[in-house]
Amino acid sequence: MIQTFTLDDVVRYTYEEMSAEEAQRFEEALCLDSELMDMFHQLHSVKSRLENISIEKEPSRQTVNNILAYSKTFDIRVAEE
Amino acid sequence: MKKYTVSDSKLVSLYKEGHEEAFEQLVGRHKNKIFTAIYMIVKDECIAEDILQETFIKVVNTIKSGRYNEEGKFLPWVMRIAHNLSIDHFRKARRYPTIIMEDGHNVFNTLDFSEDSAESIQIKKDTHTLLRQLIKELPEAQRQVLTMRHYMDMSFKEIADATGVSINTALGRMRYALINLRKKMQKHNIAYDPNIYPR
């Protein structure tokens, strides 16, 4: 029996949140269902565009140094107080 | 997503054994992503720096005192700590958090155009600026789930938990966010990737 998938399942597949087995069943369903296929094309194309936009920011060197220094001087007795 | 030869899990194990350089690697790998996630909630660099430090203090305390759960993945765990501390900041300030994309250059200052001509650099910049503007125009709930999934690396389950909705609601919001964004892109003639959408 072929499992029925919803349009929200297309989102999970597009973002690789299915197990390998479920993804395989989904791909079989995709070939037989033009609505699912169309939705996949739509979502995947936008996802690809979004992946090209970087919005990453970097913390200051001082902040990173503070974090590393805290770890090096960590005292479990003080942390548990 | 980047692939590393030494896994986060291995680095955590080394760190527990006293190898501080393993912790340095973990911080180096993930600091930008965690900092960006915090900044997108609090929208203030100084506060984001403070929350990043608080986040890693919790990480150090938990791992060094032997309370780290080996079964979980490192980054999603740290992201959850960072998210909770960011939300706590708003609770203390009695403000409601709004995840908004930033217009200013500071937020998007890491775009890499080094291989392109001046003209294509400008076209890419214009397209990216427009795309960010289109994201800003999405309804709040849709923009939130899109931001959390794409730029905070949260799973739909984690987004559902963080926003207090069912996973189906989170998936539905994401689907509508992408469909709406696609419509807006079509309206503004932002081209699709021809490898994905052959004509």
Describe the structure.
The complex is a heterodimer of chains A (81) and B (199). With 81 residues, chain A is mainly α. Chain A has one domain. Helix content of chain A is 69%, strand content 0%. The mean pLDDT of chain A is 88. Chain B is mainly α and 199 residues long. The relative contact order of chain B is 0.09. The C terminus of chain B is likely disordered. The chains are: A mainly alpha (81), B mainly alpha (199). Chains A and B meet through α1, α3, α4 and α5 of A and α2, α3, α5, α6 and α8 of B.
Task: Name its key features.
heterodimer; A: 81 residues; mainly alpha; 5 helices; B: 199 residues; 8 helices; disordered C terminus
Helix content of chain B: 55-70%
- Oligomeric state of the chains? heterodimer
Structural class of chain A: mainly alpha
Number of helices of chain A: 5
Low-confidence stretches of chain B: 96-115, 193-199
- In whole angstroms, how far apart are the ends of chain B? 29 Å
CA gyration radius of chain B, whole angstroms = 19 Å
The total strand number of chain A stands at 0
User: Hey, which two chains have the biggest interface?
Assistant: A-B, 40 and 55 residues
| Proportion in β-strands of chain B | under 5%
Helix content of chain A: 55-70%
Give the class of chain B from helix and strand content and strand pairing: mainly alpha
Q: Spell out the helices and strands of chain A N to C.
A: HHHHH
